[in-house]
Amino acid sequence: METKTQPQTKEANPMKKQRMTGSEAVMQSLLHEGVDLLFGYPGGAIMPIYDALYHYQDKLNHVLVRHEQGAVHAAQGFARVTGKVGVCMVTSGPGATNAVTGIADAMVDSTPMVVISGQVASPLLGTDAFQETDVVGITQPITKWNYQVKRAEEIPEAIAKAFYIARSGRPGPVLIDITKDAQFAQIDYEYKPVEKVRSYTPATPTKKDKVAEAARLINLAKKPLALVGQGVVLGNAEKELKTFLEKSGIPAAWTLLGLSALPTEHELNVGMLGMHGNYGPNVKTNESDLIIAIGMRFDDRVTGNVQKYATNAKVVHLEIDPAEINKIIYADVPVVGNVKESLPMLTAMVSENEHTDWLNEFRVCDKVENQKIINEELFPSKKGMTMGEVIRRVTDSYGDDAIMVTDVGQHQMMASRYFKFKNTRSVVTSGGLGTMGFGLPAALGAQMGQPERPVCLFVGDGGFQMTIQELGTIFQTNAPVKIILLNNNFLGMVRQWQEMFFDKRYASTELVNPDFQMIAKGYGVAGAIVDDRDNLDAAVQQMVSHDGPFLLEVKVEKEGNVFPMVPTGASVSEIRLE
Amino acid sequence: MKQEFTLSIYSENHVGLLNQITTVFTRRHINIESLNTSESAIPGIHKFTIVVFTSRDQVNKLLGQIEKIIDVIKAYVFTTDEIIHEEVALYKVKTESLLNSNEIERLVRQYGARILEVTSDYTVIEKTGHKADTQELFDKLDNFGVSQFVRSGRIAVTKLKEELLSNYLKKLEKQKSLLD
């Protein structure tokens, strides 16, 4: 997933050394890395950098968020839909600590990002100065790399290294902390892009013998199942995946972050894995004789009880990060490397096949799931509206070609189950960390990254209020984000667990909500409210045809549940349909 | 099955790296039995020697996580029979107890220890060896009263003929020059 830097950064065409401040050097370095959009919030310790930004406004579009958490999530949304490195800037102390949640989210979801934080002047370090925090210490376990710059001379190299590390190999967030005196100091600026770091190997070359061994197992397998993760998207290997699947005839299921790597309607797409995934891929995991994991990490929400996971299968694991091999599930054949490289090698060695009978077993499961769950969710016989029917109405209205952004909770699982995709990089959701409040700012970032594509945010009434102030940023930028608020006046997922596992003791999950339409109006965001199925179509149409941001609030059934469900500690084959 | 493993971790010499490495252990509730940091034979490359008592499976996972740290160049794991290892211990006793009998002098000779300093008040004894030996000497000396005792972290070199790190660096150089 190495995005090549802009041509002007090539060493063959070196910049003449220019005299400038550290702050200007930050601006120049960002331009060298091809940055034209960043999200942030100014404050005392980063003011020199913002002052430099003032002179670069024509080249660098800075989006002023309403809270630093919003800046990081917006940068994540931008990165996920564009494949570029998301950039944000925050001040020291509370600015930096407010960014922590987003950085942790980006770390666990492998999102390429560079965070630049201001820091107190270097003589004040360690003195408990105003707005001083040890941000390098705090973010050490949640960044791929971080570094504190105390001398202006280090700025170009630190930023070059930051971008290289953030985007190469298994991507992740990098934080560069720059002291205020380094921002002010003058340097002779010269930029050299970083293309290697001695102690860091982004991706090892794929070993041919491992691929051959994997191909041998695939050719012998009677019931192979491919598990598609975000590694396919991050490696830009969607085409390679499709070719592999179509030649080998292997059914493919996806993880939450692998969603949209394979079109929804592809005949080999058998659905979502894990806790609220589809019935087929979960139960068939334990009937399969070969699991081919492609760029995924066997998260516990995917595996359920690992002792009872894939009990009849050998495992082939294609993965860029060697630390993921054998971390959760033992790999009989580990294929370490970028899937962009390993998938075509594998395709060349596997025989053409059609696993018709095996694929039909998934169709049988689909029928069961349709009868027990999906039909009622999409075409409810009850009066109350379901999340599923709203989501399906929205995806249909966009011809299945919108970007889906979600917050975290019931609506997230419903959206992943019922939104449909034709194109890759169409999903922005908080997977590993499960950050409520992620949705609204991430949708803004996604929209700014892909201004031509429709962006639909599905959000619950709980998560919406965690970062609701970013409506202000949407107002200011007029980013035409379509917000679909699935309002059940509950923290729905927690309530569902309370219903199922805590005898309906609804401890602190019911919300008394404000008038969301009035709030939206205050921020200049148009909206509509639907509490009756008969009005849903018209409201969705109003949203789709509206030029600009829109809040569609749908009052859904208060106590709807997400099924199927693999309860924690249970095996994937013990998935519950009711 | 749990057993003793010695990890040799080679890294760039950067501030904060020790913290990043130890976090890998603390996050997984694995106790570090001993830790030593020093320069390595190669200029600019730092070496951490860490002893843990855990399973093979777990130690391999630790190794993976440690190697993921950007500034770590390479990490190796060894069982105790694959390395030559030593620790150094210092014992402070009253000089009076040394003079009162021959016993302390006899122990110093028997254990191959040596006396570093003698003042009218105290005597400092030093012994290098494996943990069991330095501990045994402590137990014996303590009969006469040891007022201070300290043992260093383990230091170790491999018994291998080839040098793993140098070979790795050569391989790396070759791979990266291919990329250029």
Structure characterization notes:
The complex is a heterodimer of chains A (578) and B (180). By secondary structure, chain A is α/β, with parallel strands linked by helices. Chain A has 3 domains: 7-189, 3-Layer(aba) Sandwich (Rossmann fold), CATH 3.40.50.970; 208-362, 3-Layer(aba) Sandwich (Rossmann fold); 383-555, Thiamin diphosphate (ThDP)-binding fold, Pyr/PP domains (Rossmann fold). Chain A contains 22 helices and 20 strands. In chain A, strands 3-2-4-5-7-6 form a 6-stranded parallel beta sheet, with helices on both faces. A 6-stranded parallel beta sheet of chain A has the order 11-10-9-12-13-14, with helices on both faces. In chain A, strands 16-15-17-18-20-19 form a 6-stranded parallel beta sheet, sandwiched between helices. In chain A, strand 19 (526-530), helix 22 (536-545) and strand 20 form a beta-alpha-beta unit. The longest helix of chain A is centred in the middle third of the chain and has 23 residues, at 356-378. Chain B has 180 residues and is α+β, with helices and mostly antiparallel strands. Chain B has 2 domains: 2-84 and 157-168, ACT domain (Alpha-Beta Plaits), CATH 3.30.70; 86-151, ACT-like. Chain A, domain 2 (Alpha-Beta Plaits, 2-Layer Sandwich), CATH 3.30.70. Chain B has 6 helices and 9 strands, in the order E-H-E-E-H-E-E-H-H-E-E-H-E-E-H. Chain B has helices at 17-27, 56-68, 95-100, 103-110, 131-141, 164-179; strands at 2-12, 32-39, 45-55, 72-79, 83-94, 114-118, 122-129, 146-151, 155-158. In chain B, strands 5, 6, 7, 8 and 9 form a 5-stranded antiparallel beta sheet that branches. In chain B, strand 2 and strand 3 form a beta hairpin. The mean pLDDT of chain B is 94. Classes of the chains: A alpha/beta (578), B alpha+beta (180).
Task: Provide the domain count of chain A.
Answer: 3
Number of helices of chain A: 22
Helix content estimate of chain B? 25-40%
CATH superfamily of the largest domain in chain B: ACT domain
Radius of gyration of chain A (Å) = 24 Å
Provide the number of structural domains of chain B. Answer: 2
Number of helices of chain B: 6
CATH architecture of the largest domain in chain A: 3-Layer(aba) Sandwich
CATH names the topology of the largest domain in chain A as Rossmann fold
CATH class of the largest domain in chain A: Alpha Beta
The most extensive interface, with participating residues per chain, is: A-B, 21 and 22 residues
State the shape of chain B.
elongated
Largest sheet of chain A: 6 strands, parallel
Mean pLDDT of chain A: 96
Oligomeric assembly:
heterodimer
Name the shape of chain A in a single word.
globular
| Spatial arrangement of strands, main beta sheet of chain A | 3-2-4-5-7-6
User: What are the low-pLDDT stretches of chain B, counting only 5+ consecutive residues below 50?
Assistant: none
**Main beta sheet of chain B:** 5 strands, antiparallel
- Class inferred from helices and paired strands of chain A: alpha/beta
